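Quiz preparation item.
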């Protein structure tokens, strides 16, 4: 079975059905839209068949949605660049102003220095248009992001491939698990979910709902159960049931709460008792609106849980999307996906050039 599968990420068809479930799931039937019999006009009634149908609006492309989602970040940067460079030469003062703008936009000191250094080398004491500055901005951001833009691959040699999801409360961790489950199930993988956030009834219920929507198995216990024991049970059942992928939710926890971080370390140790090679991925979900706080989250979760990759959510609700650039420059962790909305298709694989161009307003 393993030999017939390719390593899969978000590329190509995105994700089969689960098998035996600890919590039974079903696919709810969608409501059929009602059909209007006629249109009422002043002169009387006209049958619907006599009226040309209104074409459905074209669905925006992913880049259009990404650009729209990053509009707050982009507008802040482009307005600032225009203010700095309109009818001015590139001199020490404008470079200092630009560097301040880039740092205030959360791009990080390293990236800000790279952009200003390139401009200084190429155009110092010359006139330069804001559009040219934005082109350099997009180019330098792409250089930073390209090495970390990597798809999330499921290794068919693992049985199952185990992904542990970690992060603070409010980052969209549980929703992200559901979106990943939907994509990989459509790609033909047998997927199981584990409701490891045993502190919150809402998180358990939310994961069950995602299990129903996606037709995937869900391992869950009552609120207050031991998270490590649930993880042990889920890994054991996933191995016995021949699952391809197991996604384990965890309780949201602040990175500075030592007791909660110790519990997370316990979950990792227990998983290794069943499969010494697992977890095969530890994904940290980050809320883009937190800005600079995301740096400390990556630092602490990386040390305590062995984070292997990042997923950034809520880029559509912030002017601080540049923080992803600072994270890439400082830590170099793979960025697997980004989210710009609540829909399942609003979580997409991370593309460095698209992100850079969207931020730069290109």
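Solution:
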């Amino acid at each position: 079975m393993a030999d017939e599968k390719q390593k899969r990420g978000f590329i190509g068809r995105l994700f089969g059905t689960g098998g035996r479930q600890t919590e039974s799931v079903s696919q709810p039937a969608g409501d059929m839209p009602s059909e209007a019999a006629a249109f009422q006009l002043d002169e009387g009634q006209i049958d619907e068949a006599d009226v040309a149908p209104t074409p459905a609006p074209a669905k925006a492309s992913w880049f259009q949605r990404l650009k729209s989602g990053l509009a707050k970040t982009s507008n802040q940067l482009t307005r600032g660049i225009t203010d700095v460079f309109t009818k001015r030469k590139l001199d020490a003062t404008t470079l200092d102003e630009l560097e301040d703008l880039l740092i205030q936009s959360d791009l990080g000191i390293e990236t800000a220095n790279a952009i200003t250094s390139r401009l200084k080398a190429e155009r110092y004491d010359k006139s330069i248009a804001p559009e040219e500055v934005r082109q350099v901005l997009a180019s330098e951001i792409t250089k930073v992001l390209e090495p970390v833009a990597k798809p999330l691959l499921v290794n068919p040699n693992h049985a199952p491939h185990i992904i542990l999801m970690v992060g603070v409360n409010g980052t969209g961790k549980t929703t992200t698990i559901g979106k990943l489950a939907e994509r990989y199930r459509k790609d033909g993988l047998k997927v199981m979910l584990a409701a490891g956030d045993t502190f919150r009834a809402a998180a358990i219920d939310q994961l069950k709902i995602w299990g129903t929507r996606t037709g995937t198995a869900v391992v869950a216990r009552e609120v207050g159960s031991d998270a490590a024991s649930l993880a042990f049970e889920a890994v054991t059942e996933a191995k016995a049931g021949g699952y391809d992928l197991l996604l384990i939710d965890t309780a949201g926890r602040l990175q500075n709460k030592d007791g909660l971080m110790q519990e997370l370390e316990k979950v990792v140790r227990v998983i290794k008792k069943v499969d010494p090679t697992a977890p095969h991925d530890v994904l940290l979900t980050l809320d883009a609106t937190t800005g600079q706080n995301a740096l400390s989250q990556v630092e602490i979760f990386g040390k305590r849980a062995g984070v292997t990759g990042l997923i950034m959510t809520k880029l559509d609700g912030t002017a601080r999307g540049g923080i992803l650039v600072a994270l890439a420059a400082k830590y170099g962790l793979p960025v697997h996906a980004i989210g710009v909305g609540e829909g399942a298709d609003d979580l997409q694989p991370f593309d460095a050039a698209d992100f850079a161009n969207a931020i730069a307003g290109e």
